[in-house]
Design goal:
The complex is a heterodimer. Chain A has two domains: about 80 residues; about 140 residues. Helices cover about 60% and strands about 10% of the residues of chain A. In chain A, a hairpin with a 5-residue loop joins strand 6 and strand 7. In chain A, the strands form three sheets. In chain A, strands 1-2-4 form a three-stranded antiparallel β-sheet. In chain A, strands 3-5 form a two-stranded antiparallel ribbon. Chain B is α+β, with helices and mostly antiparallel strands. Chain B has one domain: Orthogonal Bundle (Arc Repressor Mutant, subunit A), CATH 1.10.10. In chain B, about 60% of the residues lie in helices and about 15% in strands. In chain B, helix 1 packs across helix 4 and helix 2 packs across helix 3. The N terminus of chain B is likely disordered. The chains are: A mainly alpha, B alpha+beta. Chains A and B meet through helix 2 and helix 11 of A and helix 1, helix 3 and strand 4 of B. Chain A: It comes from Propioniciclava sinopodophylli. Chain A: Keywords: Membrane, Transmembrane, Transmembrane helix. Chain A: This is DUF1648 domain-containing protein.
Chain lengths: ~290, ~130
């Protein structure tokens, strides 16, 4: 018996963790921590510090057909999901439900959750909103399921407004802008790469119009739920980031460039999701109380 | 990651890691948390923070909002409880939870299973002494 997987040899430990990753990948996100704990304890009880991969394979086989199938790579285990040196990854195509689980889960107090797509962690805007006292952890039975159509339409207004502002910026100030504009900034916020004014305008206008289009398409959809809210959050993030970039290109730069750009992406996305969730909560209250 | 305490206690010929013991205790708690919430709601409807407060007042369960709210969400999805907003005499409206018929049946089944496991373990542990 060992008390931690850290007591295993590096080879066996790596194989054990790979098996744990594969085993929990097949179950819903909210069950993974519990399942991983249980399987870790089962391994610790059955292995000792000198156990090799063969012993691990035997123990895994003893643990049951589902676990054994996961270990051998058969069954429901999904190799596109797991951890790599402790960093979670998930390279399955993102879905509205997974995005909701990682980016809007007010019931979960964690601020960062394994990302819905790619490697690393997503900011749980829902958990952050609860910590800030902006919404209750159980404000909605099912996030965004009761959010009214009008709220989705209103949320599409932000990316449209940002796109209009970017277009107006280049239309009005375009002639007076320098021929070359900053396109990248170093860690201290000083511009270190430049592009022609026309290219900068094309990128900024193109991206902001794409964000407005994404928002409009989400608003026009008749299907309520996490997918629709996620598309509007993404549109707001792109629109906010591009608008900030457009303004920052005209300034000298400084330490604030990074935080402002990150805030320009995160704040619109978070506020959009928060607004849609509050609208959903109000709709639930109107349903039950006759008023919000 | 190594346990931060790294304390060992020797009982007979076996070593028990305190952290492992804590983890096992946590496992026991996880197994009964659903019954705790269903049992509380079997006594009458309650709102979310009321459930959290009443369970948090029982230190042996060691439950917090971070455990209770995701569980409420799962029970809602499973159709074992439902929710409704109600006016509050103080402050804004609150969301109250109550057992559905399926939830009442699940609570009876879990309670019966718990009684059986508890009695069996009590007998077993008495014999072990």
């Amino acid at each position: 018996m060992i008390t931690s997987l850290d007591h295993l040899t590096p080879t066996t430990r790596g194989a054990a963790r790979a098996w744990l990753d594969a085993s929990v990948a097949a179950v819903p996100h909210d069950l993974r921590a519990d399942l991983r704990d249980e399987l870790t304890i089962a391994l610790c009880e059955r292995l000792d510090a000198t156990s090799g991969p063969d012993e691990l394979a035997r123990v895994v086989a003893d643990l049951g057909p589902v676990a054994a199938a996961s270990y051998s790579g058969d069954g429901d285990a999904d190799p596109r999901v797991g951890r790599w040196f402790g960093v979670p990854f998930d390279v399955r195509p993102p879905t509205g439900d997974r995005l909701k689980e990682s980016m809007w889960d007010p019931a979960d107090p964690r601020l960062f959750k394994p990302c819905a797509f790619g490697a690393g962690w997503d900011l749980n805007f829902g958990g952050a909103a609860v910590k800030l006292g902006l919404i209750e952890p159980d404000a909605e039975d099912e996030p965004f399921a009761n959010t009214p159509h009008e709220a989705f339409s209103a949320a599409a207004g932000f990316p449209a407004l940002m796109a209009a502002a970017v277009v107006a910026h280049y239309a009005v100030r375009g002639r007076s802008l320098p021929d070359r504009l900053p396109n990248h900034w170093d860690a201290a916020g000083r511009p270190d790469r430049w592009v022609g004014k026309g290219t900068a305008a094309a990128v900024d206008v193109g991206l902001s119009l794409a964000a407005a289009g994404l928002g409009a398409a989400a608003a026009a959809s008749r299907t309520n739920g996490a997918g629709r809210a996620g598309r509007l959050g993404l549109a707001a993030a792109i629109a906010g980031g591009v608008a900030k970039m457009t303004v920052i290109r005209t300034m000298r730069g400084g330490w604030w460039v990074g935080p402002v750009l990150v805030g320009g992406v995160l704040a619109p996305a978070g506020l959009t999701l928060l607004g849609l969730a509050l609208a959903g909560r109000d709709a639930e209250r109107r349903r039950d109380l006759g008023h919000s | 990651m190594p346990c931060p305490t790294q304390i060992y206690a020797v009982q007979g010929t076996r070593c028990y890691h305190y952290c492992m013991a804590d983890e096992r205790t946590a496992q026991i708690r996880r197994g009964v948390v659903e019954l705790a919430v269903l049992g509380l709601l079997a006594q009458g409807e309650r709102y979310g923070s009321q459930i959290v407060d009443e369970l948090a007042a029982r230190p042996a369960l060691s439950l917090t909002g971070g455990t209770v709210y995701p569980l409420l969400s799962r029970l809602l999805k499973a159709g074992l409880i439902d929710s409704t907003w109600q006016e509050s005499p103080v402050g804004p409206p609150r969301k109250y939870y109550r057992l559905t018929q399926a939830g009442q049946a699940a609570e009876r089944d879990l309670r019966s299973a718990w009684d059986s496991v508890r009695d069996t373990l009590d007998d077993l542990l008495k014999e072990a002494r």
